[in-house]
Amino acid sequence: MSGPVIPHTKIRDTKDCSWTARLLARLVVPELTEDEQDEIVITLQFLADPRAEAPLVAIFADRTRPEALRSAAASVLRAGRGLDRRTLTGLIRDGDPVEQWQAMVAMEHDEAGLVATIAADPGHSLHRAAIHTMAWGFEAPRFQALKIAALAHPDARVREAAAETLLWDEPVAAEVPLLRALDDSVDAVAIAAAQALAYYPTRRVVLRLAEVRAAAGERGQAAAKALDNQDSFAEALQGPVGARRTDLLAWMKPVWDILALTEDDLQPSASEPTSAPRPVRQPLDAARLLRDLADPDGPWGDKLRRLRAEPSLVGPADRARLVPFLVEHPDPRVRGACGHLLAAWGEQAALLRLVGDPRPAVASHAIDWLAKTTPDAAVAQCARDYLARPWVAGMDAAYALTTCVAHTPRAEVIPLLTRHVLEDPREAVRLRAVEALIELQAAPALASLLPLLEAPPRVHWGVHLALLRACGELALDASRGLDALRDVDNADVQAALARAP
After folding, report:
1. pLDDT score for 135
2. 155: Cβ contacts below 8 Å, ≥ 6 apart
3. How far is CA 434 from CA 370, 400, 477, 480, in A?
4. Splitting the chain (501 residues) into consecutive groups of 10 residues, what average pLDDT does each group show?
5. At what angle do helices 141-149 and 112-119 cross, to 10 degrees?
6. From CA 75, how far away is CA 83, in angstroms rounded?
7. Which residues of 263-277 are buried (b: 16+ CB within 10 A; e: fewer)?
8. Superfamily assignment of 314-499 in CATH?
9. Sign of the CA dihedral 12, 18, 23, 26?
10. How far apart (Å, rounded) are the C-alpha atoms in residues 219 and 232?
């Protein structure tokens, strides 16, 4: 059965929500092909129309529907975080297999205990879903250990999920198990391992990928592509000169022919690239914006672009109308996109309200924009409270720490940042804390952290690299730490050593 022609590309480009109802109607047609269903799902994800959520929830909850359709509906809801987080634990306990699976993959760090318990049980029916869930936000070493262990699971689908999950955090401890996975009997596992290893800039990885590249089929192609993505080796050569550059070239010699770097790669960059000119923002037409955002139909791409107008060109009367309208808007796309306006207008109360928004993306944008407002103790406390939320991790946590720094007196924030570097289980927070200390030129605090250079990385090399940068910028003595890192097989670390004082 041929259906109506749906211009998916145009709908996605313009975010034309006048198509939402028609897409939902087409999604439930029994004769729909798998390919067409996938296209509709992707388009609905692009639209992120909140009006689609109730129909999609109804489809997902209807156990008489085909499993593929219910899973498709859930995937759209997950993309927009439209599944009710309060019901997920109950679905794990009482739901049917479709509901249990979708509830597990929708979970975030607020349910880390449950996710970790299932991820630690290789025989659990949701084990693979739990491994998949830990791709985002599960940064701590104890979670990395569970992902790495899953690379040895007897089910190839679990091994593949583990390799895909490990790509995002790049834990050093996963390198050797991922190298072993290149020899997996199932191509899909080996391909996922190669894709993850593309982000491990070590000579050992390059040598092994070169061997796999000779294999026929998709496995060899994946290894070749991973080698093409090993940019850290070329980037390492941009800067060091003289004896340090010679040493770095000698370190690369075992993989030089494999990498096939060009003459351009051998030349130190003459200067930093100039930044692209900032786009000129148009004045904000408040009346038109109020009218357009009140209409849930139409091309939302244009509407959201107009929302990014120049805030300084909006008068006090229009601001008074816009602020409550934007903060109370029923569409999370609007609440999430208005932060730059609220920050520019000094509307801290409005941004603080959005930090409590039920949509995590809205709250994350709000906490980020609060960093651009006048220092205030209430905002500092809000940022600390937000950072303490159990589900806040990754860049969301880094944004909160940045806002905390912007609103906390120097005498208080430096010891706070030091504690985060030493104690926080979230690697993104530790790294951002070191970067903030560099920005504050807190040399004594950074010097106290230099013994970390002699310790192995908790997850990846990010904190070590940031501390090495601090040594260069603030003339800190890291001689003991440098000696401990000389033999590390990592192009980023070797490049940092070549630039160290």
Report:
1. 94
2. 128
3. 21, 14, 16, 19
4. 83 97 96 95 96 96 96 94 86 95 93 96 97 94 97 98 96 98 97 98 97 93 94 88 90 94 64 56 82 94 88 87 96 95 96 95 96 97 94 93 98 98 96 98 97 96 97 91 92 93 79
5. 30
6. 10
7. eeeeeeeeeeeeeee
8. Leucine-rich Repeat Variant (1.25.10.10)
9. negative
10. 23
Angle between helices 53-61 and 67-79 (to 10 degrees): 140
Cα(20)–Cα(225) distance, integer angstroms:
37
pLDDT, residue 238, reads 84
pLDDT for 267 equals: 61
pLDDT of residue 2: 61
Residue 158 to residue 123: CA distance in whole angstroms: 11
Q: Give the 3-state secondary structure of 95-151.
A: CCHHHHHHHHHHCCHHHHHHHHHHHCCCCCCCHHHHHHHCCCCCCCHHHHHHHHHHH
H-type helices in 309-409, by residue range? 316-327, 332-337, 339-344, 348-355, 360-369, 377-387, 394-407
What per-residue confidence (pLDDT) applies to 268?
55
Q: Which helix (H) or strand (E) holds 228?
A: helix 217-228
Alpha-carbon gap, residue 68 to 72, rounded angstroms: 6
Distance between CA atoms of 426 and 430, rounded to whole angstroms? 6
Q: Are 296 and 331 in contact (CB under 8 A)?
A: yes
Distance CA 327, CA 344 (A): 15
The whole-number pLDDT of residue 266 equals 61
Strand partners, 299: 16
Query: Among candidates 204, 203, 132, which has minimal Cα distance to 168?
Result: 132
Burial class, 30, CB count within 10 angstroms (exposed 0-12 / middle 13-18 / buried 19+): exposed
pLDDT at position 80 is 86
Residues facing residue 310 across a β-bridge: 283
Coil/strand/helix, residue 16: strand
| Collapsed DSSP state (helix, strand, coil) of residue 299 | strand
Per-domain boundaries in the chain:
1-106, 314-499
Residue 279 has a pLDDT of: 58
Tokens encoding 450: 């230099």
Task: Give me the residue label for tokens 């679990």.
Answer: 158
Supply the pLDDT for residue 269: 53
